[in-house]
Design brief:
four-stranded mixed β-sheet; mainly beta
C-alpha cells in the first residue's frame, strides 16, 4: 500500500508499506573519521577470524592470527556470527566526513539493499583530511548485498541512489 499526502502544492510520498515491512535495522553501528584503511573498500564479514583481521588493520596493527580474544586488548566488539554479519565500509582518503550512517536496509528480490550516506560537514577554510569508516552489525543473510550510496547535489537536496558495491555470499570475508 502506498500512502500519499495531497495538498494544493502537489503530492508528497510518505511511505511505501511494502518497503517498510521488509526494513532491517542494524543492531550496532560503529562509525568514525580515522581508519587506518587508506583505500576505499567494502566487505561483508561472516566469521570471528575475518572480523579480528579487519579490526586489527582498521586500528593500524599487524595481523596477529593468535589474537587473545579473552583479554581483548584491542577492544574488538564481540559479534555473534551465528545470527549476525557485519558490513564494513571504508571511504579511503577523503575530506570532511565523520564516517557513514545507514539510511535504509531492506530485502528486494534476492538482494539485501544497503543504503548508506556519508556523515559530511563543512569547515571554515581548508578541508579536514580523514579516512572515514562504518561498521554495521545486521542480521545474518545469505543474500547478495547491494550497496547504494546517497548522492546529493546540495546539502538538503533530494537523494540519488548510486550503486557502489555488490558482495555475493561467496565473496564474503571468512
Amino acid at each position: 500500500m502506498l500512502i500519499l499526502v495531497m495538498s494544493h502544492f502537489g503530492s508528497l510520498l510518505i511511505a511505501d508499506d511494502k518497503e517498510s515491512e521488509k526494513s532491517i535495522k542494524p543492531y550496532i553501528v560503529l562509525s568514525g573519521a580515522n581508519s587506518r584503511f587508506k583505500k576505499k573498500d567494502t566487505m561483508r564479514i561472516m566469521t570471528p577470524g575475518a572480523w579480528i583481521k579487519t579490526w586489527q588493520k582498521h586500528l593500524g596493527y599487524k595481523e596477529d592470527v593468535k589474537y587473545d580474544l579473552y583479554r581483548n586488548r584491542l577492544k574488538l566488539p564481540i559479534v555473534d556470527f551465528k545470527t549476525c554479519m557485519l558490513i564494513a565500509v571504508f571511504g579511503g582518503k577523503r575530506f570532511n566526513s565523520a564516517g557513514y550512517k545507514v539510511h535504509t536496509i531492506f530485502l528486494k528480490d534476492d538482494n539485501l539493499i544497503f543504503r548508506y550516506e556519508a556523515k559530511s560537514y563543512q569547515t571554515d577554510g581548508e578541508g579536514e583530511k580523514v579516512t572515514p569508516y562504518g561498521f554495521f552489525i545486521i542480521p545474518r543473510s545469505d543474500k547478495t548485498v547491494v550497496g547504494e550510496y546517497a548522492y546529493r547535489e546540495r546539502k538538503n537536496g533530494p537523494i540519488t541512489w548510486i550503486e557502489s558495491f555488490t558482495i555475493k555470499k561467496e565473496q564474503s570475508e571468512k
